[in-house]
Task: structure prediction
Amino acid sequence: MNLCVYPGSFDPVTLGHMDLIRRASGIYDRLIVAVGCNIGKKSTFPAETRLRMLRKCCESLENVEVDAFEGLTVQYALSRGARCVLRGLRTVSDFEFEQALALANRHLCPDVETVFLISSPQYSFLSSSVVREMAGYSQDLKGCVPEEIREEILSFFHEKTAGRF
Ligand code: ADP
Result:
């Protein structure tokens, strides 16, 4: 089976991530979207929430599984029997970062290849941090995150910022 792992923080999942997931699910027999839960890496949304939101958004994609992992991506990929790791590229700065990461992963495990998909142009400005910034200032997030989770993200930030001013 042609299996691929798409690792990331998904803090929270955006339409840019979903675009990649949809496109990759059409290429591979099975795609595992893997939410990184390393203790040292701080996230805005708890791991369980990131996982739950992703599962909700991937429900209709039959060959997509959402899982959580801790530790090195390549070790996780091998443990799942995958020889392929997917990452996305939006900009030249993404390329520089992703190239270093891919080479480090190849050094660790030459059997696992990193493959890249270029962002669709309408999503190339989108990142989880842009979404968090917008939500923190009560923007409606339309066209930025999947509709299924838009309200949940907005309420999370609404509660977080309540009473701040
Ligand atoms: P990480 O902390 O591992 O970078 P992210 O959730 O920020 O986790 O991103 C996971 C992957 O998805 C990265 O390869 C990133 O470049 C890619 N990605 C994020 N947003 C987009 C987008 N709008 N279009 C294409 N790829 C994206």
Notes: The chain has six helices and five strands.
